[in-house]
Amino acid sequence: MITKFIIKRRTQNQDWNVKNLVTNVKYSNDMNYAAGELTFDLIEVNDGFAIHNGDIIMFEWDSHKIFKGYVFKYDFKQGATYSVTAYDGLRYFKSNDSMVFPTNTLGQRFNTICGYLELPHKVIAMPQHKLKAELSDNKSYFSMLQSGIDSTRRAGDGHYFLRDNYGMIELRKYPHYQLKMIIGDKSLVTDYTLSRSIDKAANVVKLVKSSTTKGKKKVTTVKTTKNGKKKQTTKTVTTKGPKKMSATTAEGSTIDSWGKLIYVKQVTSKANTAQLKQQANNLLKQKNKQTNTLKLTAIGNIFLMAGNSVTVKINDLRQVGIGTKRYLIAKATHNFGDAYTVDLEMRV
């Protein structure tokens, strides 16, 4: 049940307790560089009260702190009701900026960005990997940190993600909590869908490099001087010939099963043949696989949040090669109400 739902003005020492006036409360959090989102409907019963964009929202469920954020959109509808969308502090990471980072860690870059945005923040797990100095020009703060998160992961220093913990922006290592509970067809889960797709897969990767042939030729020019004499000069100039194109290709073992799914990337680096071949093989490894998505609907539990992991046991999934296993929660959408449910997207 809702134990706290406060709407507060940022610019005034004024707040409203509306826990008995809100319905259709839905909260979602996502590991894919997105802000936590809270949507709700509010019955307007006080003539002196009105929702403003920028208002602070504080929401607790069964005395657990769920969401603290800010109104970014509202609709006022017939019947004197509001439909409101609020986001947590990670919403400000969507803004674009240009920043220069020295050689430092992901945690230090996270602290720099949060400090600039004047957001309360905390590094829960400090990475040790040193990132190369980088100029991030006209990129979102999410993109700046994603670059560091990807580099840190590739260096073997762990998997990190961002989370707003009731007003405190945190850099976390996942899984944040390894939940001891088991969810499945005999425990909490009421519906599930397993999707497998090759729609975005590729089993042929081509790195295409173009170059222009250059040559030299002599050009003679004749100029007339002020006294009427002609002066001839000859110089050698560089000429451009037709463009040449070369391709480095890597092919996967799924061509017979899936047909040719081709991915082409233009490259401009001065990498040699061996380096280009390695790049092509690395790309092929990323793309030559089907995507697996497991979506669950379960009876609500506030610990089923993105970034945590939980064991899933669904007997029917054994038919498609998925047994009892621990999965990371990539996205969670909580539908608060008398019938509290949660929709989960698991990283398979």
Notes on the protein architecture:
This protein has 348 residues and is mainly beta. Helices cover 13% and strands 52% of the residues. It has four helices and 23 strands. Strands 1, 2, 3, 4, 5, 6, 7, 15, 16, 20, 21, 22 and 23 form a 13-stranded mixed beta sheet that branches. It has a three-stranded mixed beta sheet with strand order 10-14-13. α1 (106-117) runs antiparallel to α2 (141-154).
Summarize the structure.
By secondary structure, the chain is mostly beta strands. The chain is built from four helices and 23 strands.
Topology:
Blueprint: E1 2-8, E2 15-17, E3 22-30, E4 37-43, E5 56-61, E6 64-77, E7 81-87, E8 96-101, E9 104-105, H1 106-117, E10 121-123, E11 130-131, E12 134-140, H2 141-154, E13 160-165, E14 168-173, E15 178-184, E16 189-197, E17 204-224, E18 230-251, H3 255-258, E19 262-266, H4 273-287, E20 291-299, E21 309-313, E22 325-336, E23 341-347
Parallel strand pairs: 10-14, 15-21, 17-19
Antiparallel strand pairs: 1-2, 1-5, 3-4, 3-22, 4-7, 5-6, 6-7, 8-12, 9-11, 13-14, 16-20, 17-18, 20-23, 21-22, 22-23
Helix pairs in contact: 1-2
Cα Rg = 29 Å
Mind summarizing the main beta sheet? 13 strands, mixed
Number of strand elements:
23
Mean pLDDT: 91
First-last Cα distance: 32 Å
The secondary structure category is mainly beta
String of helices and strands: EEEEEEEEEHEEEHEEEEEEHEHEEEE
* Contiguous uncertain segments of 5+ residues: none
Query: What general form does the structure show?
Result: extended
What's the helical proportion of residues?
Answer: 10-25%
The helix tally amounts to: 4
Beta-strand fraction estimate:
over 45%
